[in-house]
Automatic annotation (TrEMBL):
Protein name as catalogued: Class I SAM-dependent methyltransferase
CDD domains attached to this UniProt entry: AdoMet_MTases (cd02440)
Organism, scientific name: Listeria swaminathanii
PANTHER family the record matches: S-ADENOSYL-L-METHIONINE-DEPENDENT METHYLTRANSFERASES SUPERFAMILY PROTEIN, TRNA (MNM(5)S(2)U34)-METHYLTRANSFERASE, CHLOROPLASTIC
Domain of life: Bacteria
Organism phylogeny: Bacteria, Bacillati, Bacillota, Bacilli, Bacillales
InterPro entries in UniProt: MnmM_MeTrfase, SAM-dependent_MTases_sf
């Protein structure tokens, strides 16, 4: 058996859930790796809505998409993911967050607990049955530790009758190893 790393596990989950034609969200575009994967999964008939608060990240993502010929199905927004309701009310099949700071960017500019929890709440309302919200949590910096604690506390309180919530981590790694939380919307229970 070969255990999957954190990002490969998150990407494998997206590959299992996202279908051609789906509507998906990349809540933290960063350097565009997740955005490109989502664009490939939804194909030309699907749609990716991508957010980042840094124009540097939007530009890097746009370049990656254009180089791969996958920009036509992607809408990039230079704004906080907390503003999702201003940009869509469509059912969402999947969303992914990479919490922390932009790799190679200013480490003082990070995601925050308040905006992250607000956007998770919005996405939970839009999520299709069987759809997922994937949170890749990097917490090796002070703001990341606060955000991790808030996100974990929030996720532990999500009603189990409505959502499954999974945590995937390597518990023997040092230096605040990243981990994944996946929120999956369950099928409503039938009344007897």
């Amino acid at each position: 058996m070969n255990l999957r790393g954190i990002l490969p596990f998150a990407h494998d989950t997206l590959r299992k859930v996202v279908r051609s034609g789906d509507y998906v969200v990349d809540a933290t575009c960063g350097n565009g790796h997740d955005t490109l994967l989502l664009a490939e999964l939804v194909g030309i008939n699907g749609h990716v809505l991508g957010f980042d608060i840094q124009q540097l990240a939007i530009d890097a993502t746009n370049t990656r998409l254009e180089n791969a010929g996958a920009s036509s199905q992607v809408e990039l927004v230079c704004a906080s993911h907390a503003r999702i309701p201003e940009y869509t009310s469509k059912p969402v099949r999947a969303a992914i967050f990479n919490l922390g700071y932009l790799p190679g960017g200013d480490k003082e500019i990070t995601t925050t607990a308040d905006s992250t929890l607000e956007s998770i709440g919005h996405l939970m309302e839009l999520l299709e049955v069987g759809g997922v919200i994937i949170l890749v949590i990097y917490h090796g910096h002070p703001a990341g530790k606060q955000e991790k604690d808030a996100v974990v506390t929030f996720c532990e309180a999500i009603p189990q009758q409505d959502f499954h919530v999974l945590s995937y981590s390597f518990i023997n790694q040092k230096n605040d190893a990243p981990f994944v939380i996946i929120i999956e919307k369950r099928k409503p229970r039938q009344a007897n």
